[in-house]
Amino acid sequence: MSALRLIPRGNARNLSQMLMMGRRFASGGDGIRLMIGDREVVGYGINGRPVYLDSTDCPFPAIRYREVTPELCAIREKELGDWKKLSLDDKKMLYRHSFCQTFVEFKYFTPEWKICLGVALWLVAIALGLTMLLKTKMYGEMPETFEEERRSAQLRRMIQLQINPITGISSKWCYGENKWKSQVD
After folding, report:
1. Number of Cβ atoms within 10 Å of the Cβ of 99
2. In tens digits, what is the pLDDT along the chain, a chain of 185 residues?
3. What is the spatial distance between Cα 40 and Cα 65, in angstroms, rounded to a whole number?
4. Number of CB atoms found within 10 A of residue 39's CB
5. Which helix (H) or strand (E) covers residue 51, if one does?
6. N or C: which end of the chain has fewer CB within 10 A?
7. Residue partners of 100: CB distance under 8 A and separation at least 6
8. 154, exposed or middle or buried, with CB in 10 Å at 0-12, 13-18, 19+?
């Protein structure tokens, strides 16, 4: 369904409605505003969408982490003046308003790799155990055609019948001298 069907048709009095509707569709609709709430949009973000994400690839999110509160407004008034007058707690509150974690916090190496490695090793051990079980219990002995004596007899028979004399095994046999042809490079 095209977006033109959603725009109401009408006369000039509906022109403002149509313009608002078109602007709403172009900006992503009301779903984005419902998702981010009253948080401030401060940048472009990833692909132009106002979403919050702590990432090293895009270190400055498009929206602030928290919504504006009255105590934050008071600190913002102090922020407009000299930063030396701000206490350390005020600076931290301003930072935590904009960001969920510091750069070091979200780059911290978590020990989840141990669980992944453990599960992977368990799966390898189970696979090896099943392979050994199948090899010993399910599969029988190798057929007698795999014995060396039988394989050489089969090769002699293929040479006698001249099977595939152009590119196969018979092409490498010299029938005049009754031996393998020498490899010439």
Report:
1. 19
2. 444 444 444 444 444 544 444 444 445 555 677 777 788 888 887 777 888 888 888 888 888 888 888 888 888 898 888 888 889 999 999 888 889 888 888 888 888 889 999 999 999 999 999 999 998 888 888 889 999 999 999 999 999 999 988 898 888 998 888 888 886 54
3. 9
4. 19
5. none
6. C
7. 52, 54, 65, 106
8. exposed
Tokens of 131: 């392979």
Residues ≥6 apart with Cβ < 8 Å to 11: none
Q: What are 182's two structure tokens?
A: 């020498």
Can you read off the two tokens belonging to residue 173?
Answer: 């046999």
Start-to-end CA distance of the chain, whole Å, equals 69
How many other β-carbons are positioned within 10 Å of the β-carbon of residue 130?
A: 10
